[in-house]
User: What shape does this take?
Amino acid sequence: MFDSSNTISSAEAEPPLFAGIDLGGTNTKVGLVDNLGRTLAYVKVPTAIEEGPEAGAARMGQGVKTAAAEAGVTVAEIARVGLATPGTMDLSNGMLLDPVNLPGWHNFPIRDRVAHHTDRPVSYANDAAAAAFGEFWVGSGRQYDSMVLLTLGTGIGGGIIIGDLALNGETSHGAECGHIIIDCRDDARICSCDQPGHLEAYASATAVVARTEEALAAGRPSSLSERRAAGEELTTLMLAEEAERGDELSLEVILETARYLGIGIVTLLHTIDPGAVLLGGAMTFGRHDNEIGRQFLARVKEEVRHRAFPVVVRHVTIDFAALGGDAGYIGAAGIARLAHQQH
Amino acid sequence: MFDSSNTISSAEAEPPLFAGIDLGGTNTKVGLVDNLGRTLAYVKVPTAIEEGPEAGAARMGQGVKTAAAEAGVTVAEIARVGLATPGTMDLSNGMLLDPVNLPGWHNFPIRDRVAHHTDRPVSYANDAAAAAFGEFWVGSGRQYDSMVLLTLGTGIGGGIIIGDLALNGETSHGAECGHIIIDCRDDARICSCDQPGHLEAYASATAVVARTEEALAAGRPSSLSERRAAGEELTTLMLAEEAERGDELSLEVILETARYLGIGIVTLLHTIDPGAVLLGGAMTFGRHDNEIGRQFLARVKEEVRHRAFPVVVRHVTIDFAALGGDAGYIGAAGIARLAHQQH
Assistant: This one.
């Protein structure tokens, strides 16, 4: 995802400088970012979950030092560090509570431990909120005053920005947009969180695969069956490829997914009424650079156009996010910058 | 709704003073409110839609003068006026656009005309947002940092407060909580706005009556049939009365309504994660003061408890609103106060 051509030299950098850390289940991304949101240096360190959270916080501290050294600046020149992690979390107390993707990292005071290992003040944010803030600051959302980001992957994450506010909620559970209910009926699909009818149960990559499996099991003919018979695992990438080759079922599932997303987006429009809704995340057809991605986006917009208030439809922009996997650390740095300005 | 025992004398009043105006389809409420949200004087003037918006704005100006006189203060002592109207509206330009309940009051610069007729600066707000702000300032929401108000009546209105921000959205269509989608299926119920699956199509008073009609038409036995045979109109009040007398269908419809509301509330909790969700509006069983109201609220909470993230359920308060029909003008005054403080 990271395109090193975006990196600037420290001579060009506009101070103050910030570090952004995006903690993931496999890797942790650390970037040194200037006051205009430009990356000076970037390092990726293994999260190494099995070594526990204290070792992880130390590695993050080391990552910040490495990034600073690479950019030819000292850690003391970093005004503030932004740290983004998955939930569940208690933002106001800086605690990682019970993150599904970080087994064993429970009830850990991650904000203060990262502050210890970097010797810098740390702002703590939800990873989806940080990604949204990154897009809002320097990505696809930069010309809007408010914005919703949906990240489509194994699950569906969300970030809501209103003015300079990344909406966290009272219990750090705001903007959990994958868990809005789109189907109130008793036989609705079940979400990864075990609840029925959530958007994520229809439109995450996991849900797309499950819905496709069901159609195949029901006997729908598809070139997907041949690839699976050859031992390949069914993925959204495979769906996108087969749809592009003309497979009817693959395209149908992809466009149905877009329809469900459009329905979820209408609920967000009628609640938040933002300037833009951006689609990010790793799901293969969630990008401009292929025909299926463009069809997917067009179908999302069509559903929204049919269902939302006309004035809202006229004003809102629905598009793909721009920063890819960099959004998290850039946004974390942006949230640190905001805190720095307010201090 | 207005309880004159809440009125204070101008000698007790804490300056600065504000006027709040709540424009309705039949009556316009005008209150003089002090810096602590207490009402000094209150007048209700007919909206007289047929005389047009300019005459209406003049009557609002007269209402403010009357309220000031009644409190023994001059209009010049009013720091700022808050004006709340139904939508559609363009808040930033102070325009009433195309309000369904005010036929003929189209594209009218209501903010500036009310400023002209009161000779005071005017802050303009959506009526549901104003009601929410009233509850947030001095009503059931006063101890929370963020809050969602759902007003249950002919339709379902909404107001979202986050910190001191009444969420208006980019096109003044934020917090249209009646129009979140709870049923994505093709045969979902149709909303008053002609779109399928909206919360309002299941849980507004209109929807409650429609769902009851359907059950009666399908041959469900109920004491409601006898009252209708006697020429009475089916209303939510009749449902509450018959439910209290033991009519099974009436209670079932009321508790189903609570279930639908609970589902909509879960979507709002997972999006906003507020400190409180309050239920207001004229719907009869939306109150504490009767057994059916208490059962209704308990059923809403039960649905939320089953469906929302446990940590959110533990923290959020779900309750009835406190200010009744006064919430709108008090909240409008509160929004004026906020603007006054920021100027």
Residues 1-5 of chain B have pLDDT under 50 and may be disordered. The domain at 142-321 of chain B is CATH 3.30.420.40 (Nucleotidyltransferase; domain 5).
